[in-house]
Design a protein that fits this description.
The protein is an alpha+beta fold and 428 residues long. 38% of the residues lie in helices and 14% in strands. It contains 14 helices and 14 strands. Strand 12, helix 12 and strand 13 form a beta-alpha-beta unit.
Length: 428
């Protein structure tokens, strides 16, 4: 039986419907938060999103415009309950919101959209069904395929590393800036990749200032509300792992001066091997930076390139350090990104490679499992599926599926230990 047969048609249908709902809410959020849209243009976008939701829901299900508006802010922001038919409910919808009260796509919804899109694309490739979802509906976002196409070629590794390590750049020299942020021009990216950098998004601004996440350096989301009758601002990374490990702050709103952040929780780093591979928050309270003069990667490129990229580069660094003097070294994205990582020895005809791996950073493990079934394993023929240590709880489920396709699933720490012991014990 082919792997794609393991995925039920009903599950694929629900995934597609929820994906279309995610895209529709993202369009609404985009309409609400963009400064360059007029009132009629915002309304037009929301009406189009209403039509997309009704198409997804199917014949006979009406979604009133007033009901959609009620879910673009306040307590019902981003909720599907009562809006879509019961069969389209994600099953664990408690707390699952497509938008937050500020009209910004939640981290959960954004990850669902990215991951579900990959499953639906894979399903189309094996002829399971024709998708209705319009993937380019949100202006200014780019798919993983678009990023790959823009930077492919002999300098692929350098370009991808630049995107990962520099999610924020300067448009030009700032007279009073002494930080280490590079100029966009100095990255020497292909012309098609320059558009990946845009002005600091509206949701990350406060009074002309923004704050970088200490873990990934991308702008944190800012909200201002009131607590106990007093105004209070919050800044948090839109990647939950970074927020949970310390990238969450409060500040007192100021009118004429840069706000100062105070940590919500203490940042604690692990010990041992996990510390070497750590990609969570570090104990460094960010300082405010001026919006003027900076450009940042759009959210989709940051999420699909930077977030998985940090664990990949950290694996390479740790393995290289451990294998120093053995003649073996780690390589990232070999053969034009066929896989994410392997270890290699030598050059030319005598060159050897081992431990071909793909690093997966999925929030929804079910989507990753469905993708593995659709692809019949890994399309690049990786033998190891590696997840970051903070996703180690996914390993048992993934390993059961991976074994069917001649693969194994491991956490990052487990992968490093297996590689090191194999080489150090002379089993290569």
């Amino acid at each position: 039986m082919k792997g794609e047969a393991e995925v039920d048609d009903g599950e694929l249908c629900r995934t597609e419907v929820l994906l279309e709902a995610a895209v529709a809410f993202a369009v609404c959020g985009n309409a609400l938060t963009r400064e360059d849209l007029s009132g009629p243009e915002r309304l037009e976008c929301i009406v189009e999103a209403q039509g997309a939701l009704m198409t997804a829901a199917g014949p006979g299900h009406r979604i009133r415009f007033v009901d959609l508006l009620a879910r673009l802010g306040g307590e019902q922001a981003g909720a599907l309950d009562g809006l879509m038919p019961a069969w389209a409910d994600p099953g664990s919808s408690d707390g699952f919101r497509f938008l937050d009260p500020d009209g910004v796509t939640t981290s959960t919804a954004f990850d669902f959209q990215v991951e579900a899109e990959r499953v639906i694309r894979a399903a189309k490739k094996v002829g399971r069904f024709d998708s209705r979802v319009t993937y380019g509906a949100v202006e200014g976002e780019y798919s993983q395929e678009t990023v790959f196409s823009a930077i492919k070629g002999p300098f692929y590794e350098r370009h991808r590393r630049n995107l990962i390590e520099h999610p924020v750049v300067l448009q030009a020299e700032l007279p009073h800036w002494s930080g280490s942020v590079p100029l966009l021009a100095d990255l020497n990216l292909p012309t098609r990749a320059l558009d990946f950098y845009q002005p600091v998004p509206q949701h990350a601004r406060y009074g002309g200032w923004w704050f970088p996440c200490p873990a990934c350096r991308w702008p944190m989301k800012i909200s201002v509300g009131s607590t106990g009758g007093k105004a209070q601002g919050t800044a948090r990374c839109l990647y939950p792992w970074h927020e949970e490990t310390g990238a969450s702050y409060v500040f007192r709103p100021a009118v004429k001066e840069a706000p100062v952040l105070n940590p919500v929780i203490e940042c604690r780093r692990p010990a041992g091997r996990e510390a070497d591979l750590w990609t969570g928050c570090v104990p460094e309270v960010p300082l405010a930076r001026p919006v003027e003069g900076f450009k940042v990667l759009v959210r989709s490129v940051w999420r699909c390139t930077c977030i998985p990229g940090w664990p990949e580069l950290r694996l390479q660094s740790v393995i290289d350090e451990e294998l120093d003097g053995t003649g073996w070294h780690a390589e990232v994205w070999p053969d034009g990104d066929r896989i994410d990582l392997h270890i290699a020895q030598g050059e030319g005809p005598g060159r050897r490679t081992l431990f071909p791996a793909d690093v997966k950073v999925y929030t929804f493990v079910t989507q990753l499992i469905n993708k593995l079934h659709m692809d019949g394993g890994d399309r690049g023929h990786a033998q190891w599926l590696v997840v970051p240590d903070h996703h180690r709880h996914q390993v048992p489920q993934l390993d059961l599926v991976c074994r069917r396709y001649g693969m194994r699933a491991l956490s990052s720490s487990e992968y490093v230990e297996r590689v090191i012991s194999h080489i150090r014990e002379g089993r290569a």
